[in-house]
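Here is one chain, start to finish.
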Amino acid sequence: MHHTLSVLVENQPGVLARVAGLFSRRGFNIESLAVGPTEREDWSRITIRVDASQHSIDQVVKQLYKLINVLKVNELTADDAIERELLIVRVTSQPTQRADLIKLAEVFGARVCDVGPTSLMFECIEHPDKLHAFEELLRPYGIKELVRTGRIAMRKTLPERPRTGRMKVLA
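Its structure:
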């Protein structure tokens, strides 16, 4: 089963190595790893995607909290999070094919970011599953080069709970 963990850490040297090392020691293959700054310059967020059982993930979360620079760990699900990834791809393209490729890219929200004599380069920011579908549709044209950033995710805004009890009216 795939799990996405969002780990808020102090922005200090060696933190990423310690977090990744914890997964490595347990024999997990990290499918995707993305790290970046947050709204505070002294914090970073690490988004990790792994394939593991729920019990194993629960154990990893407990071990993550034992690391000194880890501030908070959240397991994110597809229902409660927005997930995105960046794809940049260079596709073989003769001038006669370009219009078809550009129309295909528009369907996926991709934009042309470079044009060469025999190729087009696209960038697309989308859910990882949609990027995979875009990749598969580009394969028959000939993918020359492709790079993806890795998954990032953030929990959706939760609805506010109604307040219970009596409200005091001030006159």
